[in-house]
Design brief:
By secondary structure, the protein is mainly beta. It is built from one helix and eight strands, in the order ββββββββα.
Amino acid sequence: MDASREDDPNAGLWVDDFKTAPRQVFRGWVDSYARGPGNEIYFLEGKPDLNGVLWKVGWNGQGLTRTSTTIRLIYSYWIQLVRDSQEFVAVSPDGRHVTVNVQGVLQANIGMIENIR
């Protein structure tokens, strides 16, 4: 659920089986998410220091686990999920590799370097 303001208690990752009430399994800033292997969701928690922490949890909301991966965020930890986010993650089918997009302006910087040479 997107945050409506800073420190919004409803912001975070929720699960819903459409039979019972939705349940919040993670409170905080979820910047991006991706489906992992089996029945897992990987999501990127945004931190104020602009580091994203990668977590995983089961589709049923069980087994919330912090991974060892930290990803540098591009702009802000306080954004609206997907619509404003510039960070996107994808997880390999075996769950061993994470792919992260790079900031688009870096490509322009490479072009500038070539022009200087």
